[in-house]
Amino acid sequence: MTLWMMIANRSHELLMRKQLLLLGVVFLSLVWLLFQKDTSMPILHLPPGRIIDTEFEGQTAFLVNTTGCRIPYMDPFDELIREYIEDADPPKCDKFSIGRLVKADYDSVYIDSDVLNNIISANSSIDPNQVKCHYNEFWRVEQPFRKDGQYSLSVDTKVRFSSENVEIKNRTVIVKEEFIKVSCEVKNEPIYTDYFAFPRSRRAKQKEKNSVSISLIGFDSVSRLNLHRQMPRTVAFLKEKIISVEMLGYNKVGDNTFPNMIPVLVGRTIEEIKKTCWQQENIFDDCPFIWKKYKESNFSTAYYEDASWMGLFNYQKYGFRKQPTDFYGQIFSLMAEKELGGDKRLNAHLCIGNRMVLNVLLENANKYIIRSKKALTWSMFWTSSMTHDFLNLPRLADLPFVEFMENLYNNEIFNSTVFIFMSDHGIRWGGIRSTYQGYMEERLPFLFISFPKWFGNTYQLATQNLKANRRRLTTHFDLHETLLDLIDLSNLQDEVIIERTNNLNHYARRGISLFLPVPENRTCEDAGITENWCTCYTSKSVSASEPLVKKAAEALVNYMNSLLKDHHECSELNVHEVLSARIEQLMSTVEDKDSILTKSTDYIVTIITEPGNGIFEATVRHRISSDEFTVINDVSRLNTYGDQSKCISHYLLKLYCFCL
Q1: Cβ of 602: how many Cβ atoms within 10 Å?
Q2: Which end of the chain has less Cβ packing within 10 Å, N or C?
Q3: Under a CB-based contact definition with an 8 Å cutoff, are residues 598 and 439 in contact?
Q4: Rounded-to-integer distance, Cα 48 and Cα 55, Å
Q5: What global pTM score does this model have?
Q6: Could you report the per-residue pLDDT of 468-494, keeping only the tens digit for each?
C-alpha cells in the first residue's frame, strides 16, 4: 500500500468519526428543540416544499391579463406534474479523501490546519515539514490578430503557467494574480490539487452618492415555476429580506440559451448580429455587448460561467480573441473542470475536486462583488452545472445561493447594487416537458430585479413603472434596455421618465426599459416574440351549441355543486342555458411537436342555472390529452341573488346557493 493510500484511508477513518460525533450532536439538538414551547422556525430554514404564493390565492386565473396578452396562472405543484418532482442525489465531490487541504479567502491561500493534522495523525512517520504545498500562477494567452479572420476553436482556450513555484507554508500567502493552481505532496508523492481565482475590479470609477453597481446572476434552464418549486428559500429571501420585483410575464424569445441571452447582452437577435458583428461565426469581439458600454462609463466589468465547455460563446463557437471583460473566468473554469471535474451527469461536471462547481462560481462571485464594494462594477455570473439537464437538481442550489446572498447582505452590498436574478428559459426536455404546463414553463423563465431602498425613493416614477410592469408581457429585449438605463441614473429622474413615456407612445419598440410603462395592449409580435414561443392567449367567440362548450358548462355546474355538497339546504344546480362562450387559445399557431397530446384549451362560458336562474361566468380549462374539464378561476355571478340564498351565511357560497 502506498503512503498516499495509507494517509487517505486513515484520514477517511478520522473524518468518519468526526461526522458520527457531529450527527450525534445534531440529533440531540433536534430532540431538545422538539420539547421547547416555541418550535417555530424562520422560513429560510424550512425544508423545500410547497410554498403557496398568497398573492394568487383566490384569484388564480392569469398572471398577465391585458388587452394584448393573457398568460394563465399555473400551480407549481399541479397534480399532473407532481410525478416529475422528486429528491435529487447530491453531488459526490470526494476526489481527495483527506478533504480540502488548501483553502482561500479574498486575496490569499492557506493550509487548513485541521486537515494537515489529520494527515499527520494518519501516519506518525510523517513530519509536518514533509507536507509541502505550492502554487503556480497561470494566465489566459491572447491570440495574434489575423487579417483573414480565420481563427480556430482554441482561440479562447490558450493558457500559460508560471514556472515559479510559490511555497505555501503554515501561514497565509497573499496572491497577486487572478488564477492559481495549487499542488501538495508528501515525500514527493502528490496528494492534493486545486484551482483558485481571485477576481478583482480594475480601473473602476469609485462609487459616489446615488450610484449603483450592477450584478447579474443567471441560472440556465430554470422556469419561474421551477424556481418556486426547487428554491423556496431563495424566493423567500428575494421577497422578504430585500426589495425585489418579480416579472410575472417574462417570456423567452428563442429556443436555447444563446438566442435568449444575445438579446439581453446585445439587444439584437442572432440573425441581426450575423449580419453585423458575427458575420463569419468566428469570434464575438466586434459585437456591441452591454459590458462595453459600462466600460466606456468607467465601470469595472466581470463575466464568468461554470460548465465552460458549453459556455454561451464557446459551445460550437469560437468565443473571444481579446479578453472581453476586466475579469473573465472562462480559462479558469475550463482548466479547473478539465483536471478536477467530477460526478459528471449528462453534460456537466457537478464537482471541481472536493467542491461543487456551483459553490466555486458563488465563491468567485462573492470575491468579486465584495472586493469591489466601493467601485462601480458590472458583473455577470452564469451557472449551468446544476440546472441545464435536470428538473430537480436546482433544489441543491437553494441553500448555497441563500448563503451567498446572506453574505452580500451582511456586507451591505444591496445598499448600492441593482441585483438581477434571472434565467434564460425553462427546462427543455424530460418528462415534465410532455405536459401542457411543461410546454408553458419552457417559455416562461424567471426575472427578479432588486434595488436599494434609497433608489426607490429617489426614482419613484421609474420604480412605480417597474412594479406595474411585473404583470405585463416582457422579454429579454426589455432587460437589455433596462441595463442601458442603469449606466446613467439621470435616465431615471421623474421628469426624464415622463418625457420618455410621452415619446414612447408615438412608436412601437421591440425592447422597452422596464423603468418605462410597458403598453397595456402589447402583443407577442410587438415584443419580438415569434409565434412558437408566445405564451399569450387570445380569445374568440364560439358557438354555445358546440359539444365541448356544453361539456365545459356541465363542468362549471358540477364544480359549484361540489362546493355546495355539504350544504343540504341548497338545491342541486343544473345547466338551463349556455348564454355565450369564448375560446381562449395560445396566440401561437405553430404546433409544438412535444405538446400535441397535452395542449389545453380554455373556454370562458356564461350560463343560466336552474333552479333560480342564476347567471354565472368562469374559465374552464379542457386538457385535451385526458379530456378533463377544470374550472381554473373564481366563478363570477352576473346577476343578483336577493333572498334566494338566505338559508346560508357563507359569503362565497351565497353566490351559488338556491335554498330548497
Answers
A1: 23
A2: N
A3: yes
A4: 20
A5: 0.79
A6: 999 999 999 999 999 999 999 999 999
